[in-house]
Specification:
With about 120 residues, this protein is mostly beta strands.
Length: about 120
């Protein structure tokens, strides 16, 4: 089972990036996908998640209205569209698979599998 993130990079404040999380070895129908991030010297925090059915999503207050999570089942990929990026969004972003039912949460507890992370840097 594997999760591979891509799409990170350097962007100016106010800019946009779209992160991708390509999964293999399991179906997105069986796992919620959660995006986490970890900035230098800070604890890892949950950013957004999408449920197993794709019918529910959740966002941290710090990104609501700016980030959107979505998925493409045929491509086995989950996306995190990030708009109006701020310097405080700078972090390594990880996607993770959690075998939870119903609504997803931004907690590490239910996580079974992790990706390797992709760096997002927001700077002028």
């Amino acid at each position: 089972l594997q999760l591979v993130e891509s799409g990170g990079g350097l962007v100016q404040p106010g800019g946009s990036l779209r992160l991708s999380c390509a999964v293999s070895g399991f179906s997105l129908d069986n796992y919620a996908i959660i995006w986490f991030r970890q900035a230098p010297g800070k604890a890892r925090e949950g950013v957004s998640c999408i449920s197993r059915t794709g019918g529910a999503s959740n966002y941290a207050d710090s990104v609501k209205g700016r980030f959107t999570i979505s998925r493409d089942l045929p491509k086995h990929t989950v996306y995190l569209q990030m708009n109006n990026l701020k310097p405080e969004d700078t972090a390594v972003y990880y996607c993770a698979a959690a075998r939870v039912f119903g609504l997803c949460t931004l907690s590490e507890g239910p996580v079974h599998y992790w990706g390797q992370g992709t760096q997002v840097t927001v700077s002028s």
